[in-house]
Amino acid sequence: MAGGGFTGPVGSGNVDFQARITAYVIITCIMAASGGLMFGYDIGISGGVTGMEDFLEKFFPAVARKEHEAKQSTYCKYDNQGLQLFTSSLYLAGLVATFFASYTTRRFGRRPTMLIAGLFFLAGVIFNAAAQDLLMLIIGRLLLGCGVGFANQAVPLFLSEIAPTRIRGGLNILFQLNITIGILCANIVNYFTAKIKPWGWRLSLGLAGIPAILLAVGSVCLVETPNSLIERGHLEEGKNVLRKIRGTDNVDAEFSELVQASKTAAEVKHPFRNLMKRRNRPQLVITIFLQIFQQLTGINAIMFYAPVLFQTLGFKSDASLYSAVITGAVNVISTIVSIYSVDKLGRRVLLLEAGIQMFISQVIIGILLATGLKDGQQLSQATAIVIVLMVCVFVSGFAWSWGPLGWLIPSETFPLETRSAGQSVTVCVNLLFTFGVAQAFLSMLCNFKYGIFFFFAGWVFIMSFFVLFLLPETKNVPIEEMMDRVWKQHWLWKSFVTDADLIDDEEDDVNSKQENGRAGGHAYHNSQL
Q1: Residue 323 CA to chain centroid, in angstroms?
Q2: Whose C-alpha in 150, 406, 412, 448 is 20 to 30 A from the C-alpha of 475?
Q3: Which sign, positive or negative, has the C-alpha torsion 210, 216, 221, 222?
Q4: Nearest CA among 399, 185, 206 for reference residue 302
Q5: pTM (2 d.p.)
Q6: Which residues of 98-135 are buried (b: 16+ CB within 10 A; e: fewer)?
Q7: CA distances from 45 to 15, 87, 309, 314 (A)
């Protein structure tokens, strides 16, 4: 059933692609994006339970004792490597899992990879909710991390490949929107379960099973993307799916381009090695730095530890959880703004505006803490209110820029032959730096004190200049046309994708293909990484 009108004609060079914004596509993307709901819930829930006294007394008694020590530095109450490992272990496991997820995404498709993610999530939830000791708790977090690795690999690819070009940005951001909704739900759950003694933390961790079931069941009901089907040799099925998701029978032009892209991809037997070719250097550099900078905004330090952070700043337990709910709500609303603006204003405008917004808010927070928070004292009510407002300003800027676009831009810039490997690099680098921030933040807060906010503000300043000079605009550009319409037009990156570079790389691909042919390979054999 079609809804809305044609998004096209959407061109690929001189060819027009027709595509309706169908209800089927919207529903499919919403179901797929439930992987973000699980990821967001995991981010939000850890900060809440680590601030619950019952949870700390059972698993981290040393931290529970420090909370009540009068001489303990205000900024150092929660400085504990074990407590940080509880949060960060999820991302370490996700880092390892993403390499396996790259294989399953390419070899078996996007949909089975999402199903595997859902099953990992369910197993992790069971271990966490039933945890009797720290080992069981960490095992549960590691299983959840495997789910994150598989989901973050498959879902952004799925959304980019299903969505019509003109609304690709908006639909892809559904993944980030669900992350923010998951964080908000976790904050709300924590607010109420903190009052349930002594097992409220188990309920918080156990309710993660709801989004896990949604992802597992949803992945069974979804169609595979036409890109993946064609890439694996299922041409007729791929064309039928393309007709279904585009809401029209006139898909020959787009189908032909996907087939051609798939043939090119089939000749690449080692996509990770191919990523290092000169012609793929722009996408690789952009992807790596986007993931590094996304974490160095400091957002996950706030999202992971929001209740703990607010308690550190002198808020009472209920007030800290309530403040976390407020910032979570701002996160959701601002991500919705991104959905409506990303394909109208473009990626660069959102990133640059948000850079100014995040820089100013973090500098103000740092100044207020430097002048208003001393060890053994609490913030004045007026100062506390301003800090919460500035945190909301910071979160809103991130939520309509670096949050969704850090995932969107890499997923839409890699060509098909390296897309799975490129997404794997995206997830790998993101999780590596997420792990680093999660493991180090409470210790950095203890040592840097208010300076932690100046530290992150400095990085926001640097990344804004990176966007200004090195990030090209990808708004409304079909994925398979990125080379000609984006990279070849950029003042710097065009020197990496000259015709001579492309010819040299193509000759390398031909030689590789001949070697593989002598070894018994064939055009649509995609099982090797």
Answers
A1: 24
A2: 150
A3: positive
A4: 399
A5: 0.78
A6: bbbbbbbbbbbbbbbbbbbbbbbbbbbbbbbbebeeee
A7: 48, 10, 14, 21
